[in-house]
Known about the structure:
Layout: E1 12-13, E2 27-28, H1 32-45, E3 50-54, E4 61-65
Amino acid sequence: MxxxxxxxxxVVYSETATPVRGCTGKRCYPSQSVAGKLAKRQRRxxxxxxxxxxxxxCHSWHIGEARA
Length: 68
């Protein structure tokens, strides 16, 4: 079944006042559900395990590779 329109998610790039190594420039998602849906979509096309996680520095949600 085709969808008549795709749901657009607002993506914000992390820009903190004091740059945090490893966080600046990453995509930030507003909630865990949005990040989880996009991580699930990315897992379909990628061979690695991609998960959503809550950043302790910027307090947003990011998507990244899961550690074993």
